UniProtKB/TrEMBL annotation:
InterPro entries: DUF7134 (IPR055558), HATPase_C_sf (IPR036890), HATPase_dom (IPR003594), Sensor_HK_TwoCompSys (IPR050482), Sig_transdc_His_kin_sub3_dim/P (IPR011712). Residues 32-151 form the DUF7134 domain. Residues 212-277 form the Signal transduction histidine kinase subgroup 3 dimerisation and phosphoacceptor domain. Pfam families: DUF7134, HATPase_c, HisKA_3. Keywords: ATP-binding, Kinase, Membrane, Nucleotide-binding, Phosphoprotein, Transferase, Transmembrane, Transmembrane helix, Two-component regulatory system. GO terms for molecular function: kinase activity. This is histidine kinase. CDD domains: HATPase_UhpB-NarQ-NarX-like. It catalyses: ATP + protein L-histidine = ADP + protein N-phospho-L-histidine. Residues 325-411 form the Histidine kinase/HSP90-like ATPase domain. It comes from Arthrobacter mangrovi. It comes from the Bacteria. The keyword Cell division does not apply.
Amino acid sequence: MSAQSSAKEAAERTAAVSFAEISSKRRGPIRRYFHAHPVAMDWVLIAATALFGLPNVVVTLGKGEWLPLVLLLAVCAALAFRRRFPWLVLALATVSDVLTILYTSTGSSSIGIWIALYTLATTVRAAVAVAAAIVVGVLMVAAMGINLPPEISESIASGELPPYVGLVSGVIMILFNVIAAGIGVTVRRDRLHDMELHRWAADNAMLASATERNRIAREMHDVVAHSLSVMVALSDGAAVVVKKDPQRAGEVLGQLSTTGRTALADMRRVLGVLREGGQQPAAPLEPAGSELADLVEGFRAAGLPLKVVTSGPPLPEDPNFRLNAYRIIQESLTNVLRYARGMSEVELTVARSDGQVYICVSDDGRAPANVKSLGAGQGIAGMRERAAIYSGQVACGPRPGGGWIVEATLHWPGEELAHG
């Protein structure tokens, strides 16, 4: 299994667990129990069907009629399979009620057909469920018209009951069938809504996971690219001066060791974000020794003739803003260290005014002919992504008089609000 698929499954599991907790809180204790134990719900409905039809069975048994008991047992047995075969269970319940009406003296008294209609409505479209409820009701009304109980016929003939009583009874029967189907339609709609929310939660979890992976990838790129570039420059410098000035070579090697340890510390911080479980908070992505002065001194030790120009107030105290500015400067200077040759000056400008921070890194060097990129080509894209977080932009390209220039503008809304 790939790392990407593992991350996707983990995100979906996290979303499912979170959504399950939210859905569970919306239900009462009884609903939560039956939602977790659907078989128990089936047995409750079977018992209710049996109890509701029991009086009719007792009366018909007293008259020597066994058919209602057989049909009631058949419907109860069929309800155990209502989730797997809703259409078949509805057909059997309908046939059972029609036979009871046609061939017994008391008529149907089973609620099995309503349960079957409800179950069917939870699996099909609303129009189909309502149509099935009406068809079933019409069949039952037709059976009642064929075998109307004698006492009702006598009451209609004597005028005690109006002649349209059968029509009213049929409409009421169909109405109850439609109500049973309507309840199922509502439950199906709620279930589809829950599924949609579940997919939404899973999509959000995947988006958050992808965003965090991209963020970590940017940090790893900046840490590794900067540190290795500085370490290569320091080791090359030490190799040059080791015979002429052993003391200076020792200082360079000491700086090399310090840079390596700092890189390891930064990588531990970045990779600490990936830890799962436990009670420890997520590790921050802020690099060790993230002060701009430390970064500048490191590049100077690596051989860059770096000049720093600052103006305006210090950078905002927000750690994320400072981190993005730090990484843009770090990436720009790393590219100078990698690619520029024969430079006499590298200038770093950091200016803050009117709710924005302006960063400029320029050099007067030249790029070697047919140079091959030492990185993955994501450095400039990463800088632009970081600037975009604060509604900023990054422009880079060759200088008119030779060399290279990187200009970045980051907007700080907190200062604008304060002045407004």
